[in-house]
Design brief:
The protein is mainly alpha-helical and about 325 residues long.
């Protein structure tokens, strides 16, 4: 089972595309409203596994402070307004208000566990990446509802209390259980076995939850998607612009102010959005409209994963090779 889930995680782009297409086909031919009952358990399946591996203890480790401060300034003082600017350009029609809300949710939800993975693949500063992930997750859980209310409150009634309640359910509760699980495993099996054997088993389970949520959301939105397929292009273009701007901005900042390892962590610590939490909140707070928000987030998953992989190929050209940098220091 875990081998199959591992294969799915390694081919996440194709798995998400399959979930989107199969969800649309299923929802077009079958009434899938009954699948709404799966949203809560799928949400827990999506968020809890990544919380088991969340390394909160690393917050007290030395290093990465400058990275963290600048990354959070970018995450909360710049990127939400980039998202809002794109909303003003592309999603001004009344019928697009929930697509706009999806873009705002993306913009105010840094950063995902993928930040740590991609930073590792690119040989960046892992301690800084871990700290960014933890700090960004906690800060976004506190301030995101206010951002959403401020940026979208005139277009949509934003239920602040409902959002805070769902954040407690989909972020802090899984975080608590995740940390309890992590400590139990380490106590029973030892830290070495946890790191080398057990830790790797959790992310694929999270991926399964993501795919399940996307399938349900797309099946609920199938009739609209089939009747207006060009709407997908209208969503993809703003997303490409969003990621192009954020990659360019953070790369320039990284190139000017940071060394290689710190720059890589900062780029991935800002560009990677916590789409899982955004998706979970959208589907649990906004009911049937959450499926429309989920559409833009599902497409963002595809672009985010693909762009993160492509960026790794550019890292050495932009920031220099790690070996050369180490040799220079010596």
């Amino acid at each position: 089972m875990f081998k199959a889930l591992g294969v799915i995680q390694k081919n996440l782009i194709w798995a998400i595309l399959l979930a989107v297409v199969s969800g649309v086909i299923c929802g077009y031919f079958i009434d899938t409203k009954a699948l709404k009952i799966l949203i809560v358990p799928l949400t827990f399946m999506m968020v809890y596994p990544m919380m088991v591996n969340l390394q909160i203890r690393k917050l007290v480790a030395k290093g990465g402070t400058k990275d963290i401060v600048i990354a959070q300034i970018i995450n909360f003082a710049i990127i939400p307004f980039i998202g809002f600017g794109i909303v003003q350009l592309f999603f001004q029609a009344p019928e697009q208000k929930y697509l706009a809300l999806g873009m705002i949710f993306m913009s105010v939800m840094p950063t995902s566990g993928m930040t740590i993975s991609w930073t590792a693949f690119a040989k960046g500063n892992m301690i800084a990446a871990i700290k960014m992930t933890v700090v960004g997750l906690i800060l976004s859980a506190i301030v995101a509802p206010f951002y959403v209310k401020f940026l979208m409150g005139t277009a949509i009634v934003i239920p602040l209390l409902a959002i805070f309640k769902q954040i407690a359910i989909v972020v802090f509760l899984p975080m608590l259980f995740g940390q309890i699980t992590q400590r139990f495993i380490i106590k029973k099996y030892g830290e070495e076995k946890y790191k080398n054997e057990i830790k790797q088993k959790f992310p694929p389970i999270s991926t399964l939850g993501v795919l399940g949520i996307i399938f349900v959301a797309m099946s609920l939105k199938a009739q609209v998607i089939v009747s207006n397929p060009q709407a997908l292009i209208m969503i993809i273009v703003p997303l490409l612009i969003f990621y192009a701007i954020t990659y360019t901005l953070t790369t320039i900042i990284g190139k000017i102010f940071f060394k290689r390892g710190d720059a890589i962590a900062m780029v991935y610590g800002t560009v990677m959005r916590n789409l899982s939490v955004a998706l979970a909140i959208a589907m649990t707070v906004f009911g049937k409209e959450g499926a429309e928000i989920a559409l833009i987030i599902a497409l963002a998953y595809i672009i985010q994963v693909k762009s993160a992989a492509l960026y790794i190929k550019l890292v050495d050209k932009i920031f220099g090779k790690k070996e050369i940098q180490n040799a220079t220091k010596m």
